[in-house]
């Protein structure tokens, strides 16, 4: 496992250690590192959302066993749509990639609030490029508060190899 994946796995473990959870990862990307880390923590369910058809097909092959067993689902499309999940059905949502693809924080955050159970957590990874660059974590934290998330905090920036990301964490009110 690469150094950045180990760092990510440690962070995810903090959230997933205590009991099985229903988890969503938005913007999986092409590596699948976060999905592997989440699966090691044995979630009750895992839904992966990836907009890139090329990445989605690769992920479907790589995680075919998990999809076939029903532990994991993978979805996505070229146009933003609600996730195919029930209201208040998710404990934790990770957005570890893809903030730079968003057209509207308010639309995305409304969907995240719809999915999360009361007390559920949203963890966005704010990278060091594009709109996620310098000051991006403060902008993101403000957008989360404006959307209705509570206990929003900017966590410690993670520095591993070439990866630099800052978790911005908030919860749905109970």
Topology:
Elements: H1 3-16, E1 22-26, H2 33-40, E2 45-49, H3 53-62, H4 64-69, E3 72-75, E4 90-95, H5 105-115, E5 116-126, H6 136-147, E6 150-154, E7 158-160, E8 163-171
Parallel strand pairs: 1-2, 1-4, 2-3, 4-5
Antiparallel strand pairs: 5-8, 6-8, 7-8
Helix pairs in contact: 1-2, 5-6
Descriptive overview:
This protein is of the alpha/beta class and 174 residues long. It has helices spanning 3-16, 33-40, 53-62, 64-69, 105-115, 136-147, and strands at 22-26, 45-49, 72-75, 90-95, 116-126, 150-154, 158-160, 163-171. Strands 1, 2, 3, 4, 5, 6, 7 and 8 form an eight-stranded mixed beta sheet that branches. The mean pLDDT is 80.
Give me some keywords for this one.
174 residues, 6 helices, globular, alpha/beta, 8 strands
Distance between the termini: 37 Å
Helix content: 25-40%
Name the overall outline: globular
Low-confidence stretches: none
The share of residues in extended strands comes to 25-35%
What is the number of helical segments per DSSP (H or I, 4+ residues)?
6
Helices and strands, in order, run as HEHEHHEEHEHEEE
Short description:
The protein is an alpha/beta fold and 174 residues long. It is built from 6 helices and 8 strands, in the order αβαβααββαβαβββ.
């Amino acid at each position: 496992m690469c150094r950045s994946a180990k760092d990510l796995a440690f962070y995810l473990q903090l959230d997933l250690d205590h009991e099985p959870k229903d988890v969503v990862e938005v913007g999986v990307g092409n590596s699948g590192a976060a999905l592997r880390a989440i699966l090691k923590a044995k979630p009750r369910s895992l839904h992966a959302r990836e907009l890139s058809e090329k990445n989605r097909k690769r992920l479907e092959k790589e995680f075919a066993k998990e999809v076939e067993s029903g532990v994991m689902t993978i979805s996505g499309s070229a146009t933003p749509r609600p996730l195919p999940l029930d209201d208040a059905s998710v404990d934790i949502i990770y957005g570890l990639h893809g903030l730079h693809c968003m057209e509207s924080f308010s639309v995305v955050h409304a969907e995240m609030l719809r999915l999360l159970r009361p007390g559920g957590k949203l963890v966005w990874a704010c990278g060091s490029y594009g709109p996620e660059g310098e000051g991006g974590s403060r902008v993101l934290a403000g957008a989360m508060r404006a959307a209705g998330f509570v206990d929003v905090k900017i966590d410690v920036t993670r520095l591993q190899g070439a990866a630099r990301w800052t978790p911005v964490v908030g919860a749905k009110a109970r």
